[in-house]
Amino acid sequence: MTAEIPLGELQPRDTHANEPVAIEPVGIQCIVVPLDGSPLAEAALPVAIALAKACGATVRAVHIFVPLAKGTVVPGLFEYAANVEAQLANEARAYVRDVRSRFQLREGAKEIVRVDTARGTPMTGPFGESARIVSALGRFSRMVSADLIVMTSHGRGGFSRAWMGNVADAMIRGTGLPVLVVRADAPSLGPSAVRHLMIALDGSTLAERVLPVALAIAAAMAARITLVRVAIVHWVVPRASPVAQVDSRDLAEQRREAEAYFANLLSRLRAPGVTIYAEVVDEPVTMLPETGAARALLRSVASLNADVIAIATHGLGGARRWWLGSVADKIVRGAPVATLVMRGEPRKEKNS
User: Quick one: angle between helices 211-221 and 44-55, nearest 10?
Assistant: First the structure.
């Protein structure tokens, strides 16, 4: 069951002291695209270029070169020699030149795309490559003041590189930047392919952290937005009947709460020209609430024919924090479309 609340087209409005804090589109000036040397990773570049053109941003594609420390012995592969690092570095530079020549000339992107190589910390064995890649990507993103990372859901290369399980996940959790995860096996998002952006919310301010960048993408791509919140259906067994029934009172209360939340959220959104709708989606309770929530959201992606789903990595806190590492992970791995993911809380920088 779905309750749709048409929220209409937003118009600019004055901000008064007694109004709630506004949520506005964030500026997107720099988009980082990590490359691992594979065509799969390169599938993110057309998406990033289309977004950059729409937002007036630049694309900084980067290939991380992770050298081996001197004296390293990799069983079954090779023992460190003086020319090994130079050979690997030359291959990395050759790959970057090839990508630059192909994508800078494509669709008049010469002034938009820049392709670089960055150096990670040396490896001392066949393990730990992903951690060094993530660290180098984080440093590079900070250096270029990145606003968004666009990458494919998996790639290949190196000794043990698993982008979906390691690099992409670590970038989402570790950088504090929004990450647009593009499925390599799905059609590429073109300049006008983002027509409908679905945003998953749970009623918390932490989950709302994905809204500014989602609004920016929707506004730049002239896409409409649907806000979706899941209401978990509970069952009760009346004393006079052995048959379980839907707890209609609890469900009605969840719907009222969701509708009130959406109405309040509308008053805070500032996205002129963007049409926004909202839906409350019912889902039967399961042993694991996050499984039901993810299933309902994935079903909504299909029914709404959304091109992108946006979600924070967690929302509600305490014992009810089932968004962190669970719902978002299931969405990234299971959604048939691109997923915009952002940490639900700011990253705490370590004291230097």
Answer: 80
